[in-house]
Specification:
4 copies of one chain form a homotetramer. Chain A is mainly α. The first copy, chain A, has 2 domains: about 70 residues, MazG-like (Helix Hairpins); about 30 residues, no CATH class. Helix content of chain A is about 65%, strand content about 0%. Chain A starts with a helix and ends in a 10-residue tail after the last helix. The interface between A and B is large, with 60 and 60 residues.
């Protein structure tokens, strides 16, 4: 995820603007929530969403996620795959197949 | 972002469990907000955050973002880079450097 | 909470605009999250918040909470007091005093 | 909203536990977002929500809203009514009736 060129482009963008000072883990976490809600707003009243707005807001959430991953010194690909293994154990196929129930209700 | 192996691993995980039926764009957008808040909870009261919990929750947000990108048929790398160009125009270096002000307040 | 006049004013406002059709519990829950994030945005980068914006966004969150309470047929005062009793049991004074730890970590 | 007895009960609960130190406006804003997402989680996958869970989570959002109102020294009823007047101007009945469109799209 976020191959070298994307992450380098983001890091350069931030450095040019001297913005790293604002990118504390907490501020980035707040930003992820803020952008996630702007994405959710595309679906607020049940009307057909504006595809271009959805893409734009999703890009904002992803951008802040990548900035937080870099700030924490973790690789986004790696943490997703690690979490997938933990989720695999909580949702064995034979119990979870076809169900949206949470793991403690399977 | 999300090289082939990560996205394939996620797609396979979802297919094995027949979960694609729940992954409407709206449900995924809700999920991104829900996980973003669990990430924010690591910073709720100002105490030093639990690094392992932060990584775990960030992984959850990223996972749902990748699932939504796939559902929309967009490439995560690409939409982040496209958005970066739009942001570059709204925040020219000479005006935005060192400032956290929103673009309409520069 | 929300004495008769506030709740009546809200109900009348919604009825005049024929908006009740959009106020499903789910749409109201989404709206509460969306407005909560706009409130959070006042604190995004750590600068001193704009008091008037904070009040405005808090009003929006409260408005949707009252609309949801009405939609569910519950009294806001009552559910807050009921929840307070449950919280009292989870956070006995002798253990919780001066601590921001979650109940399972006291 | 939040008649004397509810607000007094909350203030007393917080004082007994010496928790006011954690209730900065920012921490309360984060808490409102966190609880709003727990409310949203009741509707995550489209299944019929658990009414008791919805009421419980709504109570949590309301609780933090009341704590923030007190911390800011504002009356919840009053700010909701003030905001309603501003919204009335943005959504005149003749234009907004029956529409979920945002005010700049009426």
């Amino acid at each position: 995820m976020a191959d070298e060129s994307v992450r380098d482009a983001l890091a350069e963008f931030v450095a040019e603007r001297d913005w790293a000072q604002f990118h504390t883990p907490e501020n980035l976490a707040k930003s992820i929530s803020i952008e996630a809600a702007e994405l959710l707003e595309c679906f607020q009243w049940g009307a057909a969403p504006d595809d271009s707005a959805v893409r734009d807001e999703l890009a904002d959430v992803l951008t802040y996620c990548l900035l937080l991953a870099d700030r924490l010194g973790v690789d986004p690909d790696r943490i997703v795959l690690e979490k997938l293994e933990a989720t695999r154990a909580k949702y064995p196929v034979e119990k979870a197949r076809g169900s949206s129930a949470k793991y403690d209700r399977l």
